[in-house]
């Protein structure tokens, strides 16, 4: 009986150490299948490259940009008041609400000592801000001249809101969906994240804050950055956990 206890005790200690180092209980999808994350990075990077080329070459998508920029804000000005407030809400859901989520989530993860998830929130959020400011300043595309209700003057390609919603709400779905007790709820969480991303992007086009290709480029950057950074973080913590298990 004492031998069995001696055998199981180190195993138990090793398991506890592994869990503490990993920041969550089991490796997630991007740790088990990093090819998914790298595929997202390649897809997003190629999509962003194609949209940037379309912009520089005055490609056919710019016709859609101009048409929507002229049509949707005009519709907005003639719409009922609730449409105005709904579209304005999209601006804040893609900016201020994300800031609140990041702060509260970071405090919770810090309290729980979930270092992997905390690193994902921190690096993902700070990185996307730096990427947006670099790309928008470098490309320097003016925003539509038809902005209504909320006017922003900094360059608009790619859309910072579109990048942020993918990075933030995509991560929330990635963290929450696996914990849902049924397939239906997993789908609900994932669909809710996609709907929020779509709503924020549409609201920025509807109010004239961005052209269509600004938003599409923002989605592409968000997908590429999320796929790359979250996969690298997952793999780092997985390898760190395995090294510490071997040292036990």
Lay out the secondary structure.
Layout (H helix, E strand, L loop, with lengths): L1 H21 L6 H4 L1 H23 L4 H17 L3 H13 L2 H17 L2 H25 L20 H17 L6 H24 L5 H36 L1
Helix pairs in contact: 1-10, 3-10, 5-9, 6-7, 7-8, 7-10, 8-9, 8-10
Show unreliable segments: 1-25
Briefly note the structural class of the backbone: mainly alpha
Number of helices: 10
Give the DSSP E fraction (strand runs of 2 or more residues): under 5%
The total number of structural domains is 1
Q: How many β strands by DSSP?
A: 0
Task: List its traits.
disordered N terminus; 79% helix; 10 helices
Summed up, what is this model?
The longest helix has 36 residues. Helices cover 79% and strands 0% of the residues.
Architecture overview:
- This protein has 248 residues and is mostly helical.
- It has one domain (47-237).
- It has ten helices and no strands.
- It starts with a helix and ends with a helix.
């Amino acid at each position: 009986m004492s031998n069995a206890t001696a055998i199981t005790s180190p195993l138990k200690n090793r398991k506890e150490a592994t869990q503490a180092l990993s920041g969550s209980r089991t490796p997630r999808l991007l740790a088990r299948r990093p090819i998914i994350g790298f595929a997202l990075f390649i897809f997003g990077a190629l999509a962003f490259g194609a949209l940037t080329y379309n912009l520089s070459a005055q490609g056919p998508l710019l016709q859609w940009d101009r048409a929507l920029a002229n049509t949707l804000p005009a519709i907005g000005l003639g719409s009922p008041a609730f449409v105005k407030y709904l579209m304005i809400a999209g601006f804040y859901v893609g900016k201020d609400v994300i800031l609140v989520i990041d702060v509260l989530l970071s405090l919770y993860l810090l309290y729980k000592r979930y270092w992997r998830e905390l690193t994902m929130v921190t690096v993902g959020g700070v990185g996307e801000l730096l990427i947006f400011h670099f790309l928008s300043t470098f490309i320097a595309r003016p925003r539509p001249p038809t902005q209504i209700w909320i006017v922003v003057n900094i360059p608009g390609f790619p859309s910072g809101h579109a990048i942020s919603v993918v990075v933030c709400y995509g991560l929330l779905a990635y963290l929450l969906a696996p914990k849902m007790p049924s397939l239906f709820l997993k789908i609900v969480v994932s669909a809710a994240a996609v709907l929020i991303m779509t709503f924020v992007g549409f609201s920025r086009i509807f109010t004239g804050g961005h052209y269509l290709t600004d938003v599409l480029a923002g989605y592409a950057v968000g997908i590429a950055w999320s796929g790359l950074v979250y996969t690298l973080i997952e793999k780092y913590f997985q390898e760190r956990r395995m090294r510490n298990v071997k040292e036990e």
